[in-house]
Each structure stands twice: as C-alpha cells, then as structure tokens.
Design a protein that fits this description.
The chain has one domain: Cytochrome Bc1 Complex, Chain C (Up-down Bundle). It has 15 helices and two strands. The longest helix is centred in the middle third of the chain and has 33 residues. The chain has 394 residues and is mainly alpha-helical. Bound molecules: protoporphyrin IX containing FE (HEM). The site of protoporphyrin IX containing FE has 29 residues, from helix 3, helix 5, helix 6 and helix 9.
Length: 394
C-alpha cells in the first residue's frame, strides 16, 4: 500500500514539474572517483548550516532581543527551558565547526586548484560565503549581551567606523544612534537571524548549483592517467557518458573531464553522509562536554574586565594591537580588504592550466603565508589574553 501510494505521489509530481528529471540530474550526477572523501566537506557544510538554522529557530522560542532581557533569556534557555542547554549547545558548537569547516573546504578547493576556469565564480561565491559565515557567527555572539558581547560590539563598531568614506555612516546605521543603545542590539539581531543567513542560503544554493552545472572538478589526480591502468567498469563508463552529455559541449566551455567518474548516488552520497555524521557526532560530544559560554551582565564602565575577542578574530585582535597608532586604519580595514580581494581574485592571479600542486608553488606559498600569519597572530593574542608563553608579545 505505502510503496504504491508513494509511486502515485511521485508520478503526480513528475507529471506536474518533471520531478524525475530533476532527481535524475541531481542524484545520477557523475562525480570524479578518486579522492572522493576530500570532496565531502561542502555537503557537510550545507547540512550543518541547516542544523544551525533549526537550532536557531528553537532559540527564538525564548530569546528576547532587548538589552534588559537578552542575557536573562539566554540564561533561561540554558537553565530552565526543556533541553534548552542542548539546543543552545548545538547552536554554539555547530557555529564553531561551521567556521572551521569553511576553512577546511576552502583549503581543499584551493590545493585542488578547483578555482580554475570555468569555476572562478564558484570560488568567488565561496569567498562571499566565508565572509557571510563569519559575519553570522560574530553577530550571534553579540546577542548574548554579556560582557564579552558588549565589547565585541564596541570593537566591531569601531572597525566599521574606521572604514574610509562609508565607515561613519555604516557604523551609525548599525548602532542606530550616536552611542550604543537598544537599537544596536535589535539591528544586530536582524542581521543575525535575517540578513546574513538568508543571503548565505541564497548564495550557497547558487554556489552548489554551479558545481552541478559545471560538473564537480575534484582534484588534479582525476586528470592524470589512472595508475592501476584498469579498464573502465560498466558503471564508470556509463557515468562518463552521462557527464559528456550533461556538459553538452565540454570543449567550448573548457571543462576538463576526469579520467574516472562514478555516480553521485549512492557512492558519493554515502561518503558525504559518513563525513557529515562524523561532524554531527563531534558536535554532540562538544555539547555534552562543554556548556556554551556566557559571562556576567554588561558593565561598560568597568576597568577590571579584559575583553577577549572571539577565537576566529584573535589574529585580527593582535594585528590591531601591533599596528595601533598611525597604522590603525590600514590594519583595521585596508589590509583585510586587500587580503579578501586577493583571495577572491586568485583564479585570475593563477590562471594557467597547471593544476598539480608541484607546478603551483607560488599559490601554495601564498596560502601558507596567509595561514602562517593567521595562526601566529592568533597564538600571540591567545598567549596575551590567557596568559601562557608563546613568543614575546607586546
Ligand atoms: C556555506 C559555505 C559553503 C557551502 C555550503 C559550500 C558547498 C559546496 C558544495 C556542496 C560543493 C561540492 C562538494 C565539494 O566539493 O565539497 C562545493 C564545491 C566548491 N566550493 Fe564550496 N561551499 C561553501 C564555501 C566555500 C568557500 C569558502 C570556498 C572558497 C573560497 C568554496 C569553493 C568551492 C569550489 C571552488 C568548489 C568546486 C569544487 C569542485 O568542483 O571540485 N566553497 N561547495
């Protein structure tokens, strides 16, 4: 009875908007066979982002975006609401994993040279997704409205204000007045639950749409002769034929075809499922082990509180400290803007046909230098804030 019903429902939908063709395009998509585990982070990101939206929705059942009640309502969720500690824990730790995963996915596509033509736009949208993810996470932390949140907002507004030309106007738009006031929290709330995540969702769908449209690139190993030299299995040959059909005219669109492909369903979906579930388990362990943080009530006048930036901005915190004074404006926004622009334009800066890492040493050196600076500055900031020895710091 049930299978017949679902078959009829499927037929009904298929006749109305070609569901079968849509599923065939998505599920029977040919994907590169070698190195498949590395190509699973994008899917994990998408699923964990949906989990983030779901836990965020449950938090909205109790959260109150007013400066009088925000922290109290978070404490209520943490201590009183049914499973509130778990929902809040997931929302917090999943955010940590999402930011880390965006970095991992960026590194994997960078090392693979997946940004090369015709996938430049996929990469540029990826850089936008990175910014949106960080902006969503940062605005979320402010909603707690504890000491850390308040000082995070102060620093964010100050950096915005220092932006040449539009800075003061942007900062006032965000603050909702000359000084921090109830509108500042309400506007940060609007950015966190509406503007950033919805833009992120829309951009992510176009990003993934491009991956389907252009065919997944994978990595350089898929374009070298298979070391085993084994003939293609029936499955591989069928997926390869389908890829050629789907890309219509691969030559005119400069799409390289991988030597061996397999079908997205069930082979790649299985790998994506395992990796996504692994991250979910990690989330669960973190939720069970560590409570999401919350500090004391906001006291702007305090002289005893030493503000510490959120972990993914520690490197930025250190840069601001090192270059305080004459170099503050470049350190606060000109240099970060140039870094993001360089990253976004990398497909045009490294546009040659070479895809192997050994032939792209300049690209790897650039990425290593970027990671080196971020990690060194982050450790310097952490050693200053949490008082452990790293290297001499101011
Ligand atoms: C919310 C954030 C993001 C989501 C949900 C997302 C999702 C995905 C998915 C599902 C794929 C296909 C599977 C895979 O290769 O893992 C993919 C591929 C890709 N992503 Fe992302 N991504 C995100 C962020 C980024 C970032 C930050 C970058 C780089 C700046 C990036 C660059 C790419 C590129 C170049 C590909 C093509 C890979 C290929 O064809 O092999 N993505 N992304």
């Amino acid at each position: 009875m049930a299978p017949r019903l679902s078959k009829r429902a499927f037929g009904w939908l298929d006749r109305r908007f070609g569901l079968g063709a849509v599923l065939d395009r998505l599920l029977n998509d040919p994907v590169p066979e070698r190195g498949g585990w590395w190509y699973t982070f994008g899917a994990a990101l998408f699923v964990l982002f949906l989990l983030q939206a779901l836990t965020g929705l449950f938090l909205l059942f109790y959260y109150e975006p007013t400066i009088e009640r925000a922290r109290e309502s978070v404490l209520y969720i943490q201590q009183e609401a049914l499973l509130g500690w778990a929902v809040r824990g997931f929302h917090y730790w999943n955010m940590v994993l999402l930011v880390a995963l965006v970095g991992i996915h960026l590194l994997r596509t960078f090392v693979s040279a997946a940004y090369k033509a015709p996938r430049e736009l996929t990469w540029v949208l990826g850089v936008l997704l990175l910014l949106l993810m960080v902006a969503t996470a940062y605005t979320g932390v402010i909603l707690r409205w504890d000491q850390a949140a308040y000082f995070d907002l102060v620093v964010g507004l100050r950096i915005t204000e220092l932006t040449p030309v539009v800075g003061p106007w942007l900062a006032e738009l965000w603050r909702g007045g000359e000084v921090i006031n109830p509108h500042s929290l309400l506007r940060t709330f609007a950015f966190h639950i509406f503007l950033f995540p919805l833009t992120l969702l829309a951009v992510a769908l176009v990003h993934i749409g491009l991956v389907v449209l252009l065919g997944q690139y994978g990595s350089w190993i898929n374009y070298e002769p298979d070391p085993s030299g084994a003939p293609l299995t029936e499955e591989q040959a069928a997926s390869r034929r389908k890829l050629e059909e789907e890309l219509l005219d691969p030559k005119s669109r400069k799409v390289n075809l991988p030597a061996r492909t397999t079908f997205f369903w069930p082979f790649h979906v299985f790998k994506e499922g395992v990796v996504t579930f692994g991250f979910f388990l990690l989330d669960l362990l973190l939720v069970l082990w560590f409570a999401a943080p919350i500090e004391g009530p906001v006291d702007p006048a305090t002289t005893e509180y030493a503000p510490a930036s959120i972990w993914f901005f520690l490197f930025f915190d250190q840069a601001l400290l090192l270059f305080a004074g004459t170099w503050l404006v470049p350190a606060a926004n000109v240099v970060p803007l140039l870094m993001v622009l360089t990253l976004a334009l990398w497909p045009w800066l490294d546009s040659g046909s070479e895809v192997r890492p050994s032939g792209r040493l300049a690209s790897l050196a650039f990425m290593l230098a970027l990671i080196g600076v971020i990690f060194t500055f982050s450790f310097m900031a952490a050693s200053r804030i949490y008082n452990f020895e790293f290297i001499n710091h101011p």
